[in-house]
Design brief:
Chain B: It is a multi-pass membrane protein. Chain B: GO terms for molecular function: branched-chain amino acid transmembrane transporter activity. Chain B: This is Branched-chain amino acid ABC transporter permease. The complex is a heterotrimer of chains A (236), B (352) and C (426). Chain A has 236 residues and is of the alpha/beta class. In chain A, 39% of the residues lie in helices and 27% in strands. Chain A has a single domain, classed as 3-Layer(aba) Sandwich (Rossmann fold), CATH 3.40.50.300. Chain A has a 6-stranded mixed sheet with strand order 6-7-8-3-9-10, sandwiched between helices. A 4-stranded antiparallel sheet of chain A has the order 2-1-4-5. In chain A, helix 3 runs parallel beside helix 6 and helix 6 packs parallel to helix 7. Chain B contains 17 helices and 2 strands. Chain B has a two-stranded antiparallel ribbon with strand order 1-2. In chain B, helix 2 runs antiparallel to helix 8, helix 3 crosses helix 12 and helix 4 runs antiparallel to helix 5. With 426 residues, chain C is of the alpha/beta class. In chain C, 39% of the residues lie in helices and 18% in strands. The N terminus of chain C is likely disordered. Classes of the chains: A alpha/beta (236), B mainly alpha (352), C alpha/beta (426). Chains in contact: A-B, B-C. Chains B and C meet through helix 2, helix 3, helix 6, strand 2 and helix 13 of B and helix 1, helix 2, helix 3, strand 3 and helix 4 of C.
């Protein structure tokens, strides 16, 4: 049984349907990519999982139905959503942001260890540990958002367009760190990304969305070999 | 200056001095001064509630006077019915909190202006409602009580006795309030205030915490109503009028939003400004108060609580970073990081 | 470097000094100001003077709304009184029953109609040593201090309010009573005019939805009992309403001959007058005295459209040409221009009322044989058939009744030209 399982999930904003029956499964310790153009329904898929848009169908997490549960409840169950646009707490320092990530936890010692782990993972953050989050660069903010999600010790991280608005080299550094996070901790991830080559640096399996439907899915190698994927999402 | 204040010995000494002043002040002061000091304690509690919902949680509430008035009416009614003081006090907390909870369950789904509008409605409905039930409220003439006389043999005058009672309750409520905003719940409030989407992704329900903040604010409002009756011994629809709410909001901002010390400063401002303005020119109090309000907001956008920092900033001139980063470093809500940030520059100073 | 002390010692020292200073400052005040309760010593043969009075001076205090929505009437309640007192001081002072002449000063504070501030102001005034608290405007504000005034035995007298609560039981509250006729009295006067007409008249009533409104309706109902006058419809309003159009429309459907518009909020009263005529309803109008001023109500409301507009009055209207040559009015206008105008910018009847109140105080001083509050109260409560300045003919002061304010007569007036003239029969 998959850790996270979507079955025939549909969602709409008002009268405009966005998702038409998406299904996929995410195994524990794995990372699944969701590729697709703007408006294909990638972000909506993540929002449906984390309970932020109403959806139909079936979403199970660890064998429990989570469709219809409130977003905070789903978060407490162990699904951490790193939204598009990062959503760091600008008025607080990097350290406070990380601490707040661990809000639901009570194991103080481990929290400090995990903060250290995050700072090792993202050395840029260590340099700016006392800075305001709002004073960080875009790349640093993205790192902080990912690290903060990790601080909640989730079982799944939903990562939405982590490369958005970043210079290619910065985006690559962010994804390198995310890959290390995934491989070293084994946390499962759903990685939504327009830039397939960045996504493939983390995921080994992916699906491609087109106007709210899964058009292709498969392991990284086979997808990379497909012409249409290469043309559309790998820039050549 | 701030570094020195951070030293435990200085803090302890300061606390002792303040405690001694608070305890000794009423013994030698006139009944008028004791009344002012007691009123400051009354409105500090109302402001603390308001600060919890507005300052710490970021939800506009223009209805705090309604809970103040409700608490005062309950207390006045309880006194007339000769209920025990403890029962009255508890009811003054519980009933306004319950009303606040009911309102918040409906209103906390709203944001910004819509929420402000709902909270405005409370005093606006409250005033005619209070006039409509004269058996409970005393109608427009209001409700006079005579209670909490100093016990025989205590050697205290009534005003001194009431001062001690009111200040003691206020201090306890302030300790509770401080622990609340410095603790886990306070952190959740800060997250909800800062970014609701982030709160959700942290597993914090903004709705639930807004309801909680509003309920706590109502509880403090009701408790301050009890204290109000203890000091003023009278209540009328004027107590819960909308103007009082607006003045409370102004006082909270003037004192310092999301700050315990700022809450006390706000209460001092709220009570003393009309008195001082009256000393200057009784027929120009509104003008003087308005000018003072603008002046403070202009010179100290962070409220009176930022005065020491502001002075330090002016003295030091340019060196020492942008005001913005310093303001943020001073912000306390996330527990033990604050001492650490203040400890660092202090360590640098030692070798000098 | 200049200072040899280490920083932390310096701060500790500063705090300690500050603390000691704070204690010394507060240490000086208690005994100096708390002598206020010494008034009860009147039983002695040689009565010790009460606070606030010397051989040459006497100080009075008042707390009224001087800012906020009630600032107009509130300021006037101070300005008229201050005008009278200062004019009399300038003319040599007040003569007292003990043969001395004293200058009488008035300390006034703003309470913005907030009872908690009134209590604060009252304590401040008493702490500063006023002799008596006089002429304050406002029902809740005066109600808040009534118990304190009576327990501390400080006179709280000649209050500018129409509520019955301050005068109805002067045995229970011997240190408190009002100046003005009550709302009940006013409506009762209207009712009598209608009943005396001796013919069937229909009345529509618009009143405030609280105990004042009930007082008002009760005064009318009691007066018309047994006559041919009937109340055909009634409506109420809240002072917080922004418009009374729907109430007026409802009442207009009754086509009543008379509209008693007991509305105490100026803009709303203007709205009633404009709305009724705009929908073609032109009854005779009865207005309460505090919302009947020609300049602020009648003119903007277009009152000339109605067959008759009645109100009650106690005093001559200083601005009215009818009284331009009146000696009282001339004296008032001169005094107000010199003293009162810096306190109140706009005239309301409260200016004239409180001016007359000054004269009543003067009359009480004349009868005051000892410099005590007891003696003052005795003298003040023994005034009968006194013709205070500005009061209309036939209205006199009688303070000897235990359940009535100082003034209880009222004169019916009728709008005519730019002001009011004595009313003709209905």
């Amino acid at each position: 049984m998959s850790l996270l399982e979507l079955e025939d999930v549909s969602a709409s904003y008002g009268y405009a349907p966005v998702l038409h029956g998406i299904s996929f499964g995410l195994e524990a310790n794995r990372a699944e990519g969701i590729l697709g153009a703007n408006g294909a329904g990638k972000t909506t898929t993540l929002r449906a999982i984390s309970g932020m848009v109403p959806a139909t169908g079936r979403i199970r997490f660890d064998g429990v139905d989570i469709l219809g549960k409130s977003p905070d409840r789903i978060a407490r169950m162990g699904i951490a959503h790193v939204p598009e646009g990062r959503g760091t707490l600008g008025g607080l320092s990097v350290r406070d942001n990380l601490r707040i990530g661990a809000y639901q936890r009570k194991d103080r010692k481990q929290i400090d260890e995990h903060i250290e782990f995050c700072l090792d993972l993202f050395p840029n953050l260590r340099e700016r540990i006392s800075s305001n989050a709002s004073a960080l660069s875009g790349g640093e903010q993205q790192m902080l958002a990912v690290a903060r999600a990790f601080m909640a010790q989730p079982r799944v991280i939903l990562l939405d367009e982590a490369s958005l608005g970043l210079a290619p080299s910065t985006a690559q550094r962010v994804y390198d760190a995310i890959r290390r996070l995934q491989t070293e901790t084994g946390v499962a991830m759903v990685v939504v990304e327009q830039n397939a080559s960045l996504a493939f640096s983390v995921v080994d399996h992916a699906l491609v969305l087109e106007t709210g439907r899964v058009s292709i899915e498969g392991p990284k190698e086979s997808l990379m070999g497909m012409d249409e994927v290469r043309r559309a999402y790998l820039g050549g | 200056m701030k570094n020195l204040l951070a030293r435990p010995i200085v803090r302890l000494l300061l606390a002792v001095v303040i405690a001694v002043v608070i305890i000794v002040a009423p013994i030698s002061s006139s009944s008028f001064i004791n009344y002012q000091l007691s009123l400051i304690a009354v409105f500090a509690v109302a402001l603390l509630g308001l600060n919890i919902v507005m300052g710490y949680t970021g939800q506009v509430s223009l209805g705090q006077s309604a809970f103040l008035g409700l608490g005062a009416y309950i207390a006045a009614y309880g006194v007339r019915q000769e209920w025990p003081v403890v029962v009255i006090f508890l009811l003054c907390c519980i009933i306004p909190a319950a009303v606040g909870l009911l309102v918040a369950l409906a209103a906390a789904r709203l944001r910004g202006l819509a929420l402000a509008m709902v909270t405005i409605a409370l005093p606006i409905i409250g005033v005619p409602l209070a006039k409509r039930f004269p058996d409970f409220t005393g109608g427009s003439v209001g409700s006079t009580v005579s209670w909490l006389e100093a016990p025989e043999g205590s050697g205290l005058a009534d005003d001194q006795f009431r001062y001690y009672l009111v200040v003691a309750i206020a201090v306890v409520l302030f300790i509770l309030g401080r622990n609340l905003v410095r603790g886990r719940i306070g952190r959740a409030f800060a997250i909800v205030k800062s970014n609701e989407a982030v709160a959700l992704s942290m597993g914090i329900s903004p709705y639930r915490y807004k309801v909680l903040a509003f309920t706590i604010a109502s509880l403090f409002g009701g408790a301050s109503g009890f204290l109000y009756i203890a000091v003023v011994q009278y209540t009328s629809p004027e107590t819960l009028s909308f103007a009082t709410s607006i003045n409370l909001v102004a006082a909270m901002v003037i004192g310092g939003s999301a700050s315990i010390l700022g809450t006390v400063l706000g209460a001092i401002y709220f009570v003393m400004l009309p008195v001082v303005a009256g000393q200057i020119d009784s027929s120009r109090t509104a003008l003087i108060s308005g000018a003072a309000l603008l002046l403070v907001l202009f010179l100290l956008p962070g409220g009176l609580v930022s005065l020491p920092r502001r002075i330090a900033q002016l003295v030091r001139g340019g060196r020492g970073g942008s005001p913005r980063s310093r303001a943020a470093a001073d912000r306390p809500p996330t527990g033990d990081t604050a001492p650490r940030t203040t400890a660092a520059p202090e360590a640098e100073k030692q070798p000098r | 470097m200049k200072n040899s002390l280490k920083p932390n010692k310096r701060v500790v020292g500063t705090i300690a000094v500050l603390g000691v200073l704070a204690l010394t400052v507060t240490g000086c005040t208690r005994t100096a100001t708390d002598g206020g309760a010494g008034a009860g010593t009147g039983a002695d043969e040689t009565a010790a003077p009460s606070p606030g009075i010397t051989d040459t001076t006497l100080s009075l205090g008042i707390s009224s709304p001087l800012s906020g929505p009630t600032a107009g009437p509130g300021s006037c309640s101070v300005a008229g009184l201050d005008s009278y007192l200062e004019a009399q001081n300038a003319a040599g002072g007040f003569e007292f029953g003990d043969g001395k002449t004293r200058e009488v000063t008035l300390t006034y504070l703003d309470d913005t109609y907030d009872p908690a501030k009134t209590v604060s102001n009252f304590k401040q005034l008493v702490g500063d040593g006023i002799f008596a608290y006089v002429g304050a405007l406002g029902t809740p504000t005066n109600a808040a201090i009534m118990p304190i005034a009576n327990s501390e035995e400080v006179p709280q007298v000649l209050l500018v309010t129409g509520a019955t609560a301050f005068s109805e039981d002067q045995k229970a509250n011997p240190w408190t009573f009002g100046l003005l006729p009550t709302y009940y009295d006013e409506a009762n006067t209207f009712g009598k005019l209608l009943a005396d007409a001796g013919k069937p008249i229909t009345v529509a009533v618009l009143s405030q939805n609280d105990d004042f409104g009930k007082d008002y309706v009760a005064g009318l109902t009691d007066a018309i009992e047994g006559s041919d006058v009937t109340i055909v419809d009634s409506a109420t309003y809240e002072p917080t309403d922004t418009t009374l159009d729907s109430q007026v429309t409802q009442l207009a459907a009754s086509k009543a001959d008379v509209l008693m518009s007991a509305v105490s909020v100026t803009p709303l009263q203007v709205g009633v007058l404009t709305k009724a005529q705009s929908i073609g309803w032109l009854p005779r109008i009865f207005l309460p005295s505090n919302t009947s001023t020609p300049g602020t109500i009648l003119e903007p409301g277009g009152a000339t459209a109605y067959p008759a507009v009645y109100s009650t009055s106690l005093t001559k209207v200083p601005a009215s040409p009818t009284f331009a040559e009146d000696e009282d009015v001339k004296a008032y206008n001169a005094a107000f221009a010199e003293y009162g105008s810096k306190i109140a910018a706009v005239y309301t009847p409260h200016c004239a009322w409180s001016y007359a109140e000054g004269a009543i105080l003067g009359e009480a001083f004349k009868g005051m044989e000892e410099p005590t509050r007891d003696s003052f109260m005795t003298a003040l409560k023994s005034i009968k058939d006194f013709q205070a300045p500005l009061l209309l003919d036939g209205i006199t002061v009688d303070t000897t009744r235990d359940d009535q304010p100082a003034i209880s007569g009222l004169t019916l007036v009728q709008a005519s030209g730019p002001g009011y003239a004595p009313a003709k029969a209905y």
